[in-house]
Amino acid sequence: MKLSLFIGAAVAPLVIALATPALAEPVTGTVVDASGTRALQGAEVTIVELGQTAIVGADGSFRFGDVPAGSYTLRARFAGAVDDVRTIVVPESGEVSVDFVLNPVGTDMAGGARVDDVLVIGQRSNFLSAISRQRSADTVQTVLTRDAIGQFPDQNVAEALRRAPGINVLNDQGEGRFVSVRGLDPNLNSSSINGNRVLATGGAERAVALDVIPSELIESIEIKKTLTPDMDGDTIGGSIEISTTSSLDRRRNLYTASIEGSYNDLNEVTSPKGSVDFIYKFSDRFGVAGGLSYYNREFSTDNIEMDGWDVSDDGIAFAEDVEFRDYDVTRERYGGTLTFDFRPNDSTQLYFRALYSKFDDTELRRRLIFGFNEQPRSGSDTTATFDSADGRIQVRRDLKDRREVQSVRTFSVGGRTDAGAWRFNYDLGYSEADQQENGSVDPIRFQSRFQTPGALGVTFDFSNLNRPSYEIDFGQAAFVDPDRYGFTLLERTTREDARDKEFSLKGDAAYSMTLPDSSSLELKFGGRLRQREKTQSFVIDLYEDFDGDFTLADVLGSQTYGLADLGPLPDLRRVTDFIRTNGLGRFERNDLESDFVSNAENYTADEDIYAGYALARYDNGPLRVIGGVRVEHTVTDLNGNRLELVEEGAIVGGVPLADDTLFITPVQFESDYTDWLPSVNVRYELADNVIARFGAFRSLMRPSFGQQAPRFLVEENEDGERSGEFGNPDLDPYRAWNFDATLEYYFAPEAVLQGGVFYKKITDYIVEAEFENGTFNGIAYDEAVIPINGEEATVFGIELSYGQALTFLPGPFDGLLINLNYTYTDAEGEVLGRTIPLPTSSEHTLNAVLGYEKGPLSLRVAGAYRSGYLDELGGDADSDRYVDSHFQVDLSGKYRLTENVQLFGEVVNLNDATYTAYQRGPGRDRLLQYEEYSWTAKFGVRLNF
Predict the structure, then answer these.
(1) What is the model's pTM?
(2) What's the CA gap between 733 and 736, in Å, rounded?
(3) What tens digit of pLDDT does each residue of 897-922 get?
(4) Which phi and psi angles does 841 have, rounded to 5°?
(5) What number of CA atoms fall less than 13 Å from residue 146's CA on the CB side?
(6) Is 285 helix (H, G, I), strand (E, B) or coil?
(7) Pick from 412, 432, 42: which is nearest to 194 by CA?
(8) Are 579 and 439 within 8 A, CB to CB?
């Protein structure tokens, strides 16, 4: 019954579209720039006498569905352009079509037209397009676009979003990866490409790693912060909608190519990058667009990590484990897009869209690890000294060689049909993402234990939170002797296969009418079916001994680390040669542990979502109201394993176990729930250049698959003490009421000043918590980590933004462009009797861009700041993990040699911003992780024809 209802809602618009005869023709037309290059999406076309406004679409078209006969004034408006006003006469029957051509402000038409290209090329083009689409939008949103010759402001989608108001980009290895909207967890966003979901490549999260997608393949990005009923309801942070290029969006054929080098200061290596794009129109009704991108980036990272912080009986703070990590990373990206557009007649447009992107991430890590099982002998407020006479000092030197391949694929076919006052949209989509590993070494480890008097003494200095150091007090010769470090572990990810697939079907039907008071009303309904399947499967082999002598001296290498002298470390080539020569057969596999860690990660999850909605859109002069309700019914089927690893001697069924034993029990959980999601968005023009907006909507965010997958992992020692990590299939979704109010002041043709407030009330938000002495799903434990629903959280925030092209200044300063935005977010919740900031919520986010563009020269300096945030919840406030504030400066420049050739350069992380995670005491901050990356320079040439 439910399936029939929701599929009916999705398919009905298509059936009506095919069966409905054409009614009276509406008023239609196009809006393009004066150079005839590009459609001006986001331009507003207004019938002045009726107060009705149509928004120009990506292909440059606009449409009024039902206009009474008569004479009218038609006005087209776009930021930075001179308004174009026409008079039209609408007959009793028959089509009226008007095509607008807009000139930039300041164009001198006397003595012949002088056409400037600022509307379509360069920084000003991107800015003007963004504020035009923002101004005309139905919701609170931010837009980023590329210009008419295919230039996008940044290198990948995540980096491009860093410049937008309220956006905080979370880095991985110094490169933007996950996007936080208004300071909230990236898992609270939704991401789509051409209207279909981008799926998470990893096995556990819903958050999409947007560094997988090169910006060269993208036409525009919209960040929608309020929802309408025709949008998916699973968004609390923001809906990130990515669009690729359509051939019918442009008025001319386009061919572009770029060749680039990328130099990282830390590893002193130059990496290649290249891309090509094309748009070819066979006719005004049929075209093809596409692109290819390739980037092989090599860079280095220096890292320090600490864990197990404690305080000795003498009051000395110390870490039980200290790691110095030396990373060399190669990230190879390549992708492509292909789009076919066909307009068989004036009322129908059809498309096929495809995107493929592959991200090949190879991480080589060498590591020095200190491990202590006794308290320090002495120390101070900032130091701790350990002596092997007091207890074991364990020193490990290992190497990790992990190659992780992630790919994203999206395909969609659909179209739009107009039939008089009716408009129909229909789409069939398929998305897939996966993450693969085959034979990664993670890690191979060599170890030496110093546990006698005089063997080893070491002192740590924690006075610099970010750069703790160590000094060997005695035992230096043994500490750096590679022959003393024997092989103890080879952990091999023989296979990782994580896949995420989604099939979707959606359809919409809208009917427009003019009311007696000359206002307009659009009634719209539709539905969507989404069927998702996520699987994760691992085969991990643990080898803990070798048949023969095998020490670090057999595979000795060197470091590229810059924070400390790590002494002898393994070399990748020599490790690979050793394993190839001797074969895995000479290594002893630990079957029990291998089976445990493999099965611990495995699960499957099916999630089907059936959605339907109805809305009304009312326009009356300065007022626009969109309101309605969406209903989403969710069905989940989760499969995983209950693992119990019981040590020898433990009592099971009244009998002591003779050996360590692993018990594996398959488990399955099913659930379903329904959410009604009302929403209203109001847009009101207080004056010709002042717009007020208000939005209120109900939304949800389903738990991540890793959190709800029924994976129950228990380890029991011979004393019967049981520690566990559990997934929680009984988790409820986040549910939220969201409220937004903004005021936008367009005080000049190329300027905007805006401010807004937002409030969110979230129930059942999810955190991971530590528990002692309990039972979960019938499994007893002494200690456990379990994801749970919190009680209630509130989010209050303020957004401020200013952007302007300073063309009023005298030359040469009239080429300056400035963009500033600031977001304040106060996000707090209650969990287990504690008031905490919501994880990953930054209180302050600030972005600043100063650009200059005049003649062939274009320059930009950009700074992005976010304050620190809670990253993970510990057992108490002192053990919570926080990430320190981050401020990064990027610099770019372009110079156009000819109309078709441009040189460009960029410096990323000019100020050498670093990453720091820490605990807040007691007494003082305690380092958990520090990374530094240095700067990266990019340079190249771009061709366009």
Answers:
(1) 0.86
(2) 10
(3) 998 899 999 998 999 999 999 998 77
(4) -100, 115
(5) 26
(6) coil
(7) 412
(8) no
